[in-house]
Specification:
The chain is of the alpha/beta class. It is built from five helices and five strands; from the N terminus they run H-E-E-H-H-E-H-E-E-H. It has helices at 6-22, 46-49, 56-68, 86-94, 136-157, and strands at 29-34, 37-43, 76-82, 99-104, 129-131. The chain has a five-stranded mixed sheet with strand order 2-1-3-4-5. The chain starts with 5 loop residues before the first helix and ends with a helix. The relative contact order is 0.15.
């Protein structure tokens, strides 16, 4: 895949994030791409499923396993609107993802350089190329709008 295509695919992940936003979930979206085709997609569903593991990336990876008929996602790209956490970055390593492309950094949970760097850890048997910052401003605006809305809702309750 050529880096010129990253923005187009990130917009598709951003569309997933918008679905999460509309469902009152933290607006994070993810897609898995193989040979320029989406083989998995997902958005955060932790609140609706009451499941801490229902992150956008995990849902997209699971869909890709099903679509590809294998847990190995060699030559696949994982696009996530936000820097993956340790769980999601670890799952990407275990899945043999080729490249993680993310939008905005996550200074509180990010495991692709912010707090940890799971995808490039030399002690692991697979390493992943990481590209960050794709559409970070648009993604950051969506996240800020979401959390502003949450704060306003809390203020109305109190």
């Amino acid at each position: 895949m050529h880096p010129d295509q990253y923005e187009d695919f990130m917009r598709m992940a951003l569309s997933e994030a918008a679905e999460a936003y509309d469902a009152d979930e933290v607006p994070i979206g993810a897609i898995v791409v193989y040979k320029n085709k989406i083989v998995g997609r997902g958005h955060n569903r932790t609140e609706s499923l009451k499941d801490a593991t229902a992150h956008a990336e995990m849902i997209a990876l699971t869909a890709a396993y099903s679509q590809r008929g294998d847990w190995r996602l060699d030559d696949c790209y994982l696009f996530s609107t936000i820097e993956p956490c340790t769980m999601c970055a670890g799952a990407a390593v275990l899945s043999r993802i080729k490249t993680i492309v993310y939008g905005a950094k996550d200074p509180k949970f990010g495991a692709c350089g912010s707090i940890f760097n799971v995808p490039t850890e030399k002690k692991l048997n697979h390493r992943i190329e990481v590209v960050g910052g794709v559409l970070k401003d648009e993604i950051g605006e969506m996240m800020q709008a979401f959390f502003k809305q949450i704060r306003l809702q809390k203020d109305k309750i109190n």
